[in-house]
Amino acid sequence: MVRIFNHYLHRRTLQQIFFDVGLIILALLGVVISQGEQAGQIIPFAASHGLSLAGCMFVINSATGFYQHVHNRSLTESCARGLLALLIALPLAYGIFSLLPADSGYRELLTFAAMGAVAAVLAHRVYAAHSSIQSQAKTKVLIFGSGEAAKTVGSTLKAADPHVHILGYFAGPNETQPEVARTELIEPQGSLTETALKLGVDEIVVALSERRGGSMPLRQLLDCKLYGIKVVDIATHFEKTLAQIKISHVNAGWLVFGDGFNQGVVRTAVKRISDVLFSSLILLLTLPIMLLTAVAVKLESRGPVFYRQERVGLNGRQFKVIKFRSMRTDAEKDGKPRWASKNDDRVTRVGRFIRRVRIDELPQLFNVLKGEMSLVGPRPERQFFVDELVTKIPYYAVRHSVKPGVTGWAQVRYEYGSTVEDSIEKLQYDLYYVKNHTLFLDLLILLETVAVVLTGKGAR
């Protein structure tokens, strides 16, 4: 994992991005070299248009989910995503290079080279999504602990990152009843430091079930770090592996004294400016869709087109969120608030469609322009549910330290939920966002939101 602007990215993701950019540059470079004496004249055009195309391909591949690490995606689905990306990227490449001077003899060559590079990039993305990972170097991880916490670390690592090789579990001094299989326990070869060096460990995850009474050999862990072995605690492990802050394995001290949770005047100003610019642009582009949706909602059932409801925003202040109405007008006729469920029978036919593709959320852009919401942030919740969840879930109120968002890290990472357990899972993503939010992470979330809309992931 590599940390960029406070957000953890897989090294393989960066390798994929650099490979795609390199492939486009090499294709255009081949055209430049073939022109001989005219090469110097072509280079400025090839460089500027090539970088523009590479940036567009990054957006397209991100939006279609090719940079996400999904292990259960079928070949058919990957091919469908690749075809969709190709239908967007080929005309885009043609359009970018058609802007070259018309009287130049190299415009056609550069255009065909760019289109060929785009096709090659997408073919490689489909191939890479299903190629064998056995030949790739894996990070060797030793889990320090053998209790329930260590077992959880092992299971999440196996599920989340196929490029990790878990060497086994090294039991702590006071752990006499291991929760992991005996065959997975590492036989000590001297001290923890000596064992780690002999096994060639790259990283140690400290997941002891008992840390009192000398259970934490700090000197040995420090020696491991001095020998170049990464040492992380369990909370940091979950943060970088799952992009979550697991509330079951975190304490207030870790949140207070660790890095992150930086709001700042500059960050707030930049976020506000980007909110206004992007919201205005999206409203302009989606205006025809919003008009058609308003007509469809009105034709299907009696009642208002828009749905307004009190929600809790920044620092606990209430505001009225606005959305397209997707439920019957008598959805809560008994006056009792109810969670919206995945296949809620109160949802109308039009409502089911607009919820699936997130069109019902578009009017919230007006809340963004008013300053009540941001484009990216935790989902705003009703006061009734907030009061309930604050008493049941530790750190729930932390999510109100930033503006709520139209989309967010929890929305793109976790399917729609309607229980307290679901709220806990989503809170763990929200806490990660509040701790690490930057403009870079906001842009990634917006790109993943496009992928969610295109694939119907997490449909409600």
TrEMBL record:
It comes from Roseateles asaccharophilus. It comes from the Bacteria. It is a multi-pass membrane protein. Keywords: Membrane, Transferase, Transmembrane, Transmembrane helix. The keyword Aminoacyl-tRNA synthetase does not apply. Gene3D superfamilies: NAD(P)-binding Rossmann-like Domain. GO terms for molecular function: phosphotransferase activity, for other substituted phosphate groups. GO terms for cellular component: membrane. It is found in: Membrane. This is Sugar transferase (PEP-CTERM system associated)/exopolysaccharide biosynthesis polyprenyl glycosylphosphotransferase. Belongs to the bacterial sugar transferase family. The chain crosses the membrane at residues 17-36, 42-67, 79-97, 109-128, 276-297. Residues 271-454 form the Bacterial sugar transferase domain.
